[in-house]
Amino acid sequence: MDDLQSKPKQYVKYVDNVAVLVMNDGENRLNLDAVSGILRCLDEIERSDAKALVTTGTGRFYSNGLDLKWMSQQNETVRADFMKSFRLFQRRLLNFPMPTIAAINGKYSSALSDMCFIRPTLRTLYH
Length: 127
Hints:
Largest sheet: 5 strands, mixed
CATH superfamily: 2-enoyl-CoA Hydratase, Chain A, domain 1
Mean pLDDT: 85
Strand content: 15-25%
Order of helices and strands: EEHEEHHEEHE
CATH class: Alpha Beta
Radius of gyration: 14 Å
CATH architecture: Alpha-Beta Complex
Number of helices: 4
CATH topology: 2-enoyl-CoA Hydratase, Chain A, domain 1
Structural class: alpha/beta
Shape: globular
Helix content: 25-40%
């Protein structure tokens, strides 16, 4: 069993030729650090031989959506940087070059799963 506390907040593991992007940060709220981490994971996956992408969370949350508390504590420049990164994240996921599956492990209110839901290649798994 993985020791989740020693894992990064976002990381990739591979099962055969399927990339599993794991969000491992409690409620997995989307802020600048989380979106940057997911984008780094997507870069890694695109460079790999993976044929499909599965996104999932750990614990009780797949993702609890935008981190509004974090956003309310940031200045306008940081919020603008976040929105730029968030829009890039949305475009990357919508146009990702392989089938994308949201394995929703718990509660969610997330732009991440919403992007997966509207992809034409989506198959959503609930477990």
